[in-house]
UniProtKB/TrEMBL annotation:
<dbReference type="Pfam" id="PF03357">
    <property type="entry name" value="Snf7"/>
</dbReference>
<keyword id="KW-0175">Coiled coil</keyword>
<feature type="region of interest" description="Disordered">
    <location>
        <begin position="1"/>
        <end position="29"/>
    </location>
</feature>
<protein>
    <submittedName>
        <fullName>Vacuolar protein sorting-associated protein 60.2-like</fullName>
    </submittedName>
</protein>
<dbReference type="GO" id="GO:0005771">
    <property type="term" value="C:multivesicular body"/>
</dbReference>
<feature type="compositionally biased region" description="Basic and acidic residues">
    <location>
        <begin position="20"/>
        <end position="29"/>
    </location>
</feature>
<comment type="similarity">
    <text>Belongs to the SNF7 family.</text>
</comment>
<dbReference type="InterPro" id="IPR005024">
    <property type="entry name" value="Snf7_fam"/>
</dbReference>
<feature type="coiled-coil region">
    <location>
        <begin position="99"/>
        <end position="148"/>
    </location>
</feature>
<dbReference type="GO" id="GO:0006900">
    <property type="term" value="P:vesicle budding from membrane"/>
</dbReference>
<feature type="region of interest" description="Disordered">
    <location>
        <begin position="175"/>
        <end position="237"/>
    </location>
</feature>
<dbReference type="GO" id="GO:0032511">
    <property type="term" value="P:late endosome to vacuole transport via multivesicular body sorting pathway"/>
</dbReference>
């Protein structure tokens, strides 16, 4: 059968967008090189026209330059067409990549959705509410235990406001007296004359006794140390 009808040839896979874009870009580069060569040739013809006098020779150079310019215009048209094709292929490639990204995103979302559904089956709102209620009850019990352990013993509870204010006034008076007697020096305390000798701890000044008046016996006179004074007459003799 294969000899009669021949074997069926395998179809080649269609070129991808990237392959087609690369092929067109190569053609565009080739055309661009041709245009560059034609530009260089036109520059030479321009110099020749400047150097040649008007006449048949100059007209011949202009004719060759016109022919090169027509070729350049043709290649420029091909180049623009190839660039437009490349632009269209780039747009198609961009759209294709966007669709592929969307497919991958959808696959990831489906997988995550399936996983979330499986996790939600193990977590119930009623179980969370029951757990919260149980935690609140445990916290209340803990507070009661702490209050019970912190309870004071033999503390009178029948103290009224009048007794409280009296106690505070007495405490304030005691603190004021302690401040006046301990914290403030005597010379700074109000309504008191400062005792400088007591503050400075100075010894008392010695008392000087005058001579005994007439009619008083010398035995009764005393000197500075409190001893009987010796008469001056006895000192001179």
């Amino acid at each position: 059968m294969k000899r009669v009808f021949g074997a069926k040839k395998d179809k080649e896979p269609p070129p991808s967008i990237q392959d087609a874009s690369e092929k067109i870009n190569k053609r565009g580069d080739t055309v661009e090189e041709k245009i560059t060569k034609l530009d260089a040739e036109l520059s030479r013809y321009k110099e020749q026209i400047k150097k040649t006098r008007p006449g048949p020779a100059q007209e011949a150079v202009k004719a060759r330059a016109m022919r090169v310019l027509k070729q350049k215009r043709m290649y420029e048209g091909q180049r623009d067409m190839l660039y437009n094709q490349t632009f269209n292929l780039d747009q198609v490639a961009f759209a294709s990549e966007g669709i592929k990204d969307a497919q991958q995103t959808m696959s990831a979302l489906k997988s995550a959705n399936k996983e979330l559904k499986g996790m939600m089956k193990t977590v119930k709102i009623q179980d969370i509410d029951n757990l919260q209620d149980e935690m609140l009850d445990l916290m209340d019990v803990s507070n009661e235990i702490q209050e019970t352990l912190g309870r004071s013993y033999n503390v009178p509870d029948d103290i009224d406001e009048e007794e409280l204010m009296g106690e505070l006034d007495a405490l304030e008076a005691d603190m004021g007296m302690e401040t006046e007697s301990e914290g403030v020096p005597s010379y700074l305390q109000p309504d008191k004359e400062p005792d400088l000798d007591a503050e400075l701890n100075l010894p008392a000044a010695p008392i000087r006794h005058e001579a005994a008046p007439a009619g008083r016996s010398n035995a009764q006179a005393e000197d500075e140390l409190g001893l009987p004074a010796v008469p001056r007459a006895s000192l001179r003799g």
